[in-house]
Structure formats: C-alpha cells, structure tokens
Specification:
The chain is mostly helical. The protein has one domain. Helix content is 69%, strand content 0%. Helix 2 crosses helix 3. The longest helix has 25 residues. The two termini are 22 Å apart.
Length: 71
C-alpha cells in the first residue's frame, strides 16, 4: 500500500521538474530583458508572465507526454 502512494507521488515528478526548468528559463529571459535590452536594474515584466508565454509556446509547439498531463 505504501508503494502505491510513492508511485503516485513519483508520477508528478516529471511535471514538477518541467515547471522548475520553465521557471529558471523564464527568470533568465526576464533578467536579459530588464538588464541587457532595457538597461534597468529590474525588468518591468513579471517572471510569471514570461513563464506563461513560454508555456503557451511550448504547449502549442510540442505534444506533451502522458506523464506531464493531469488526467
């Protein structure tokens, strides 16, 4: 019974890792926009907004594997 719960929680691991990678990517892009392109200390665009845009692009460009879907 315990192994069932562990397998259930481990099934969420690929989605969590993907979300972490998308966050780090969006934070890097946000820093480049603020520092390099606009010359500001902090970007006026939210990291969350950049992550949403990247997620929309990735969701339309690639077909997610079944492990990344919550069905």
């Amino acid at each position: 019974m315990l192994t069932h719960y562990i397998k259930n929680y481990l099934s969420y691991l690929p989605g969590i890792v993907l979300a972490l990678i998308l966050y780090l990517l969006s934070d890097g892009i946000n820093n480049v926009i603020g520092s390099e392109l606009l010359g500001l200390k902090k970007s006026p665009i939210s990291t969350v907004m950049v992550a949403i845009i990247i997620g929309i692009i990735m969701g339309n460009a690639f077909i997610p594997r079944p492990g990344f879907k919550l069905v």
